[in-house]
């Protein structure tokens, strides 16, 4: 609970994945991938309920075994490759009314911990924001990115002159997908996890890995095992 507000954590976990089959239950340093997110959410000081939204019975059984709640299996129409990510979250919010804040935790971010979750929730309150998203410093500034035009020639992605040093450029950040916090009423109203009045919780790159490939999995395993 945060300042008298009930906090729901939703962990969306589809059973199918094209990039890395069975991604959410794949083994990582001796545990299913989803276990890291469930454990972090349950260790949070501010989260009142941890719910896994899944269409898979195997994921449901693992989640329940780890102490998460699975009050429903997600409808098939909300578990396709084309389903917007926010759709499953909205489904959970409507199915489980009474929560003032909703925290969305992707199971593909195993290095995010309970301290990050609590800090992101507090950041939302401190900034009086409607949404808070976790970010990490971008590896490349937009001024130094290029796109390929017709004929295979490169042009700058940002139509700005390349000048100065990297240190002199504005700080830019990339979403890392680890944490989304929203005021539930605004989430329902704006139908997004990144709406008006969005603030940022900054995470270091070493905790910002988002597992999408076998290489990502191996890197995270090396980090966890030290």
Automatic annotation (TrEMBL):
The family database entries (CDD domains) matched by this protein are listed as: CMP-NeuAc_Synthase
Which terms are listed as keywords in the entry?
A: Nucleotidyltransferase, Transferase
Q: Secretion signal: which residues?
A: none
**Is this entry keyworded Iron-sulfur?**
no
Can you name one GO molecular function term for this protein?
N-acylneuraminate cytidylyltransferase activity
- EC number per UniProt: 2.7.7.43
Protein name (database record) = N-acylneuraminate cytidylyltransferase
Organism expressing this protein natively: Stieleria neptunia
